[in-house]
Amino acid sequence: MAASPSTPGFRTGSLPALDFSARLSRRAQTMTASAIREILKVTQRPDVISFAGGLPAPELFPLEEIRAATGTVLDRYGPAALQYSTTEGHPPLREWIAGRHGIPAANVQIMTGSQQGLDLLGKVLIEEGDRVLVEAPTYLGALQSFQPYLPRYAQIPTDEGGIDVDALDEVLRGEPAKLLYAVPNFQNPTGRTLSLERRRRLVELTAQAGVLVIEDDPYGELRFSGEPLPSLYELGLALHGDVERNHVIYCSSFSKTLVPGLRDAWVEAASPIIRKLIQVKQGADLHTPTLNQMLITELLPLLPRQIETVRRVYGERAAHMLGQMAEHFPASVTYTRPQGGMFLWVTLPEGVNTTELLPSAVERGVAYVPGSPFFALGGGENTMRLSYSSARPEQISRGMEALGETFREALG
What we know:
Blueprint: H1 20-23, H2 26-29, H3 35-42, E1 49-50, H4 63-77, H5 91-101, E2 108-112, H6 114-125, E3 131-136, H7 140-146, E4 152-159, E5 162-163, H8 165-172, E6 179-182, H9 196-209, E7 212-216, H10 232-240, E8 248-253, E9 264-268, H11 271-284, H12 290-299, H13 303-328, E10 334-335, E11 343-347, H14 354-363, E12 366-367, E13 369-370, E14 383-387, H15 393-411
Parallel strand pairs: 1-12, 3-4, 3-6, 6-7, 7-8
Antiparallel strand pairs: 2-9, 4-5, 8-9, 10-11, 11-14, 13-14
Helix pairs in contact: 4-12, 6-7, 6-11, 8-9, 9-10, 13-15
Keywords: Aminotransferase, Pyridoxal phosphate, Transferase
Organism: Deinococcus reticulitermitis
Family: Belongs to the class-I pyridoxal-phosphate-dependent aminotransferase family.
């Protein structure tokens, strides 16, 4: 039996209290809580319509197909579906992913969600003080993933066509940079899409400068209007003619196309990067859950139909939100018009602080994400992100009316 604190010999209360905060690493001390996650905590009231979380529509999850696939996988693989597996990932799944870009399966690493991919890429690529280029604004989760590795950020301005490549060119002519992080398709948080001309120039400029590009593409399949565009990774393959020379690293996920809870994602990259990702993933979680990877593989024939359903629903919801915004928002409030994905971006007149405005919106029963956390070096106080993916039409109507009232009160 273990000794209790009251066992003779223990002098309770006689030892100094340990300062746990002082024992944290410098890396840990740079970490901050996700602004989105914190906002989600205060919007759990059933009477609040939340456009804050980037959540896929749960009513679209293929529950029956997943239930059937689970039985099929267990029948086919038996205990192997529940056993430890290789770090690299389930071979049939890696082969299917590799076939999309015509690369060897050895250049694909399965990840436990895109967020792990970003974290591990930060671990193997970023040294303290490395200059990392990001869009302004950019995906908050990427900033959180990279920050513990202590980069120095440089913000690249964006407009309706995505990254301003003239500004990027100017930045690349200055101090050397290690890598550029970009979300070219239906960007989180703005919903903007990088134009084809800018994609080509971005790939060429970064190749000439010797800058790695991390292309984060979880939304690329969710286009509901306009024409598909080649990924930066595909343009990099065309430029270099060889997967082993391609300076673009491609990240994507099944979270937005199938279901987020299985946490299956992947990274495509040159072999030296993949080898290091394997090593750091071994230290992180050994491998992505075996059963989950087998389930995703079993569900691949369903994927085209599932994507088509998601595109249609998200397109309808985006159109409805844009229509309601035009009806209820003051004329001085502007917003993006996404061609796909899950988000749009709202800009209020200068001087309005959307963080300070949030309590007033919540009082009216609606929530959003203030824009400033999406800027690596500050800015965007008058902006916000709205997600339409998991909101039903009647919620969108009530929410946009409430936001319009909030804006008009703030603008006087």
